[in-house]
Amino acid sequence: MKTKIVTIGASDSPESVEEKLACAGIIIRQGGLVAFPTETVYGLGGDALNPESSRKIYAAKGRPGDNPLIIHIADMAHLDRIVSEIPGNARKLAEAFWPGPLTMIFRKAAIVPYQTTGGLDTVAVRMPVHPLARLFIRKAGGYVAAPSANLSGKPSPTLAKYVVQDMDGRIDMIIDADGAEIGLESTIVDVTGEVPMILRPGYITQQMLSGVVGETDMDVTIYDSSSPQTPRAPGMKYRHYAPKGELVIVEGEPQKVVRYINEQTALHEAEGKRTGIIGTQELLLEYHASIVKNAGSRSDADAVARQLYTFLREFDDEDVAYIYAESFSEAFEDKGFGQAVMNRLLKAAGHKIVRV
Length: 356
Ligand code: TXA
Ligand code: MG
Description:
Elements: E1 4-7, H1 14-29, E2 34-36, E3 43-47, H2 51-61, E4 70-72, H3 79-82, H4 88-97, E5 102-107, E6 122-126, H5 131-139, E7 144-145, H6 160-167, E8 173-176, E9 187-190, E10 197-200, H7 206-213, E11 217-218, H8 220-223, E12 246-251, H9 254-270, E13 275-279, E14 291-294, H10 301-317, E15 322-326, H11 329-333, H12 337-348, E16 353-355
Parallel strand pairs: 1-8, 2-8, 4-6, 5-9, 10-11, 12-15, 12-16, 13-14, 13-15
Antiparallel strand pairs: 2-3, 3-7, 4-7, 5-6, 9-10
Bound molecules: threonylcarbamoyladenylate (TXA) and magnesium ion.
Threonylcarbamoyladenylate is lined by residues 38, 40-41, 43, 67-70, 103, 105, 117, 120, 122-124, 126, 146-148, 185-186, 188, 199, 233-236.
């Protein structure tokens, strides 16, 4: 399949943007697939109400069929049609955080095919805030099923070039535009129960959610990796975001972390293995490896989040065999956005963590 790559930038007039997205919308209505930017990561879109489109999405990603898709909408009025009930807490959360990086799990309406929900009776819905995503969804008929636009197991793409790397030849169109500024996937909250339950941490934190609805719960597997329970979001059970090299997280006092990482790096490099480091601004000058990624300041989870997946992809391109990352678990403690960053880093590392 030939993939059409359509660039939308500052030089496009509103009419030209409209025209390009109208073309993209027609592709979706006709059962094709289009990758598009959102404020979190790029999505791989298809018509959510067409079972054949969902089947194509799974095939393009190489994704297991039991891992359900998120339906993206652009207007609150469209929610009714795909869910069987809108609980009070969901209304409050939608008012506070939609459009934005929040996905909610509802009981599905009959019109939503099981191919889209991975066989579940619930459906995930998100209303993104990215203006191109919103216009695209409207042009596509209002209901766009979209997982992240990566091959299954790879980091979610935050730049169009990574979508091209994974999806060229597999889908009909890729919209190349800026704007995946958050860099990590949306927060997922199940609103079908009495107390909203966080299934995947993200930019909208537990504190922010509780500020709106009072009590909230969190899936135990998010903060306790030794829990025997299965994650409630089917996708969270897979090892995700894995770089080709072996990634290890190093936790401890800063000076000990630096010493350990420098020792390990020296050993690997002596064996001729390329080694990379993800370090924070504060410690950056103390590392000796040839490939050191600057994750920004320790206190700035936003900066780390924005760049994390790019770093993991760059390490692959640079043929790095070993990767060491500083831990961000202090950020984890305060239950802020750092928790989401640490959650993704732990998954990428297959939970390999060294305490020094
Ligand atoms: O930010 C995002 O959410 C991005 C952009 C493109 O919107 N999308 C995204 O989709 O991350 P995906 O498919 O990569 O991740 C969706 C997650 C998976 O872990 C899936 O198992 C979970 O949502 N999910 C979807 N429907 C669900 C449901 N009915 N119940 C529980 N988990 C569900
Ligand atoms: Mg994904």
